[in-house]
Amino acid sequence: MSLANGSLNRRGLMLVLSSPSGAGKSTLANLLLSDEDKLVLSISATTRAKRSTEQDGVHYHFLDKLTFENRIKEGKFLEWAQVHDNYYGTPKDVVEQSLANGNDVLFDIDVKGKRQLSEKMPDDVVSIFIMPPSVAEMHNRLTKRAEDSEEAIKRRMQTAVSEVEAWQAYDYVLVNDRLSETLEQIKAILRAERQKRTRQQGLLNEMSTFIEDLKKKISQ
User: Fold this and answer.
1) Fewer Cβ neighbours under 10 Å: the N or C end of the chain?
2) What is residue 68's predicted lDDT score, i.e. its pLDDT?
3) How far apart are CA 188 and CA 50, in angstroms?
4) Angle 187-188-189 (CA atoms, 0-180°, nearest 5)?
């Protein structure tokens, strides 16, 4: 019996990235997806209307309101929320299939969504909270986007208070001062978490067999 490197199947993990606005989370998520072969993006379901540039099953799983509400009752979402008049949620079966196939699933979600995922699948979640280096830099980044008015930016920063207050609920906290360095830190976390004992399927049997073989060899 040989414990050859790569001889064990691995269960995938759920990599959660959360942050206040202006921390660079979405940019990091896109770079990570382009660099990591075994990482796939979690595609949410929604009841909002599909835009002309969007594809069902690529950008979102588009559902009507009744179907979505029935799936909530059936427990088919890992997490869900109602935003204004529309529902958004993470389909449970798609994620579980990805994990069983050894693929990691990336979640670009807020604090509330992370909390629901951790409650449903605590052993599979690896959570990272991304912080901007300072309040001044956070405001500067939001301003440079040129997407929001100053009033809207202020609202985002007000929302950030409750988001940042939840930082201790995360496994890791990274300060995104230099994008390339932060990306490498996330990759290092991903590499380490992939090797976690509890994610190595069949390891118990392999180790038990190794111990028995060792005992037999000693007794010869």
Assistant:
1) C
2) 97
3) 37
4) 90
Please count the residues of the chain: 220
Tell the CATH superfamily of the 9-42+104-219 domain. P-loop containing nucleotide triphosphate hydrolases (3.40.50.300)
CA atoms of 106 and 43, how far apart (whole Å): 9
- Inter-helix orientation angle 179-194/25-35, to 10°: 60
For the chain, which residues make up each domain, given as ranges? Answer: 9-42+104-219
pLDDT tens-place string over residues 93-114? 999 999 999 999 999 999 999 9
CB-based burial, 118-154: b 16+ in 10 Å, e otherwise = bebbeebbbbbbbbbeeeeebbebbeeeeeeeeeebe
Q: CB–CB of 42/90 below 8 Å?
A: yes
Supply angle C-alpha 82, 164, 84, rounded to 5. 15
The whole-angstrom separation of Cα 217 and Cα 220 is 5
Please state at what angle helix 150-164 crosses helix 135-145, rounded to 10 degrees: 140
Tell me how far apart the alpha carbons of residues 180 and 191 are, in angstroms, rounded to a whole number. Answer: 17
Which is it for strands 61-62 and 77-83: parallel, antiparallel or unpaired? unpaired
Global pTM?
A: 0.86
CB atoms within 10 A of CB 42: 21
